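User: Predict the complex with (2Z)-2-iminopentanedioic acid.
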Amino acid sequence: MMTPHMTDRIEGIYLDAVRRNGGELEFHQAVREVLGCLGPVLVKHPEFGKHKIIERILEPERQIIFRVPWQDDKGEIHINRGFRVEFNSALGPYKGGLRFHPSVTLSIIKFLGFEQIFKNALTGLPIGGAKGGADFDPKGRSEAEMMRFCQSFMTELYRYLGEYTDVPAGDIGVGTREINFMFGQYKRITNRYESGVVTGKSLNIGGAPVRTESTGYGLVYFLERMLQVKKEALEGKVCILSGAGNVAIHAIEKLQQLGAKVIACSDSGGYLYDENGIDLEALKYVKLAQRARLQAYLRHRPEASFVAGGNIWSIPCQIALPCATENELNGKDAEILVQNGCIAVAEGANMPTTPEGAQVFLEAGVSFGPGKAANAGGVATSALEMQQNASRDSWSFEHTETRLQEIMVGIHDLCYETAEEFGKKGNYVAGANIAGFIKVARAMVELGLV
Ligand code: NDP
Ligand code: 2IT
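Assistant: Here is the predicted structure with (2Z)-2-iminopentanedioic acid placed in the model:
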């Protein structure tokens, strides 16, 4: 199915990308969404066409695939596949997270890396786009196993990294603990305390305050601004979020601080419903301190319920925030949310809404903040961590959070205004894709044919 508003030239480029990246469905999906917005950009900026910016941006600058051998606690040997796709460095060093999850493939890493180019551009900070990871499953692994895996992963990846070259961070399955282990191994191999080579480190070893909270907090700042445009307040709104990881937990924290009521969250096993509002302390204890399954929350709040295999989007709410993974909210889910009175959706995860779902929200007038804008607070705070590392400085939590909030409001307004300028008022998907693309395209033209 083609996007109807693709021009012939862009459709040709898209079909060529599909042919050259056979079977990479997630990558095709991300490319189609961006290219579907670029017709009017080429009309306004014919120089981007002449310089073949779209064709060039679709081809990663470098793709690295490597073997990650490691031993479990029983001495058994395992082999995983590691990836790093260094997609675009027009605006700064490659920047983007590492995902450890059994579902990881080259297609997933490429879709994430492609999205990251435009997301990072929207932050206004000097960072290029990349993504990496491994098809490794952290579930049930001991701390010693995690350390060995991270060390083996970095033993190969370190040669491609550097504070001016490529700077990874976390994503699904990779949090502060794993980043710390990888930084330790990088330091050991290179004999350099190069703090700015990874972000998301703990505070003792060059990490930045707010980085842990930043994606979730930033998401809620973006949401708050979208609601302001609609003349709605966040206070008192009933919210649901998928996921119960780093992004979801800190989004819940900020939502509650701002007076919203969060009644449900989820993990890959099902959803948790607590009609009096999620008890954040209990949730943090279960997920962060104990690293247990979400269901264990019921031990602290027996009046809540856990619906194994249930669909969280069937719960009536005013605001829905998908914060787990790609394609977790489809057209049917979107229709149910709209019928139930949902007025705003902001994506904490990357590409969690299918194209059909996004279309339903757009047509129903639901404010819809796409991931590359709404979840950019994480990578933006990573760039703030890089700034602090480069100047051997450390900022306060309050100062860093104020910067994060300013950045999120700036991203919102840039997307909103760009959509309006291109005749798509209220369409944040178009605004984000066009604004992000133009920044990168201008830099690529200026850098010459490289
Ligand atoms: P975590 O690993 O901390 O948490 C992931 C959560 O999503 C868990 O609750 C997990 O459930 C659930 N989940 C993961 N994969 C699946 C799946 N295939 N099906 C159903 N549920 C799943 O990751 P994050 O919170 O960091 O990341 C969540 C999303 O946010 C991802 O899309 C990520 O790319 C995006 N993101 C993250 C940023 C960051 O700074 N961390 C920045 C910007 C975006 P379970 O435990 O059962 O697997
Ligand atoms: O998807 C993302 O933006 C991230 N996982 C964070 C990337 C980063 O470099 O902080």
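DSSP finds 17 helices and twelve strands in the chain.
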